[in-house]
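quick one, 227 residues, struct below
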Amino acid sequence: MSKDKIQKADKQDLSLVVRAIGTDLEHTQVRMITSANADMLFHYWKVGHFILYLQKKEGWGSKVIDNLSKAIRSKYPDKKGYSRRNIFYMCQFASAYPLEVLKEMDRIDSLLTTPTVENVLSLTNELNQIVQQPVALIQSTDNQSNTITQQPVAQLGEISEMLSAIYHSDISKIEDIFKQSAIVRTNWASHVILLNSKLPLGERFWYITQAVANGWSSNVLQMQIET
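---
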């Protein structure tokens, strides 16, 4: 990325991006009463996609993430979870679990109703073969017909609109797929541990299922991975 492009991104007005993230957060909080973990994970996943999309389209550098974190915390001082570090994890989360990966995890999950050692090893190995790609590489924004992909940052609407454009699907269908997947079974702290582990997809899926089955806390999950 050129120095001029980085400087341009670092100087841009982030207020509209902050507003889009804040609007999605407000919508999320209304529904958190009944399904706090799944809704917050879905919000983080959407924000991660949003930032990955803007990084590709606008050529954002890492310093823009710093500025974005400060801007969100300034506008929403009572909201937690928008540190620079956590925003980077949101991007990793979206990159690690694009929609097609969630669908494949759901397929594997349905085949493990009566697991055997051989079956588990075979199916987790299938997941390990999936090449992890950022969302921007799954649906090339240059080839999409939806007009949102042609708009500059200043004209972007809600995050949900962007996600629908990337995946060519209604946001409610995307949400259903996300919330039926195995990744909503564990909490954010555990996902951060799994993302840091650099384990392939199959192993991460296995640890998620084991954490749920055995009631592991995030600390126990960390210990299990290390040992």
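The CA atoms of residues 2 and 81 lie 31 Å apart.
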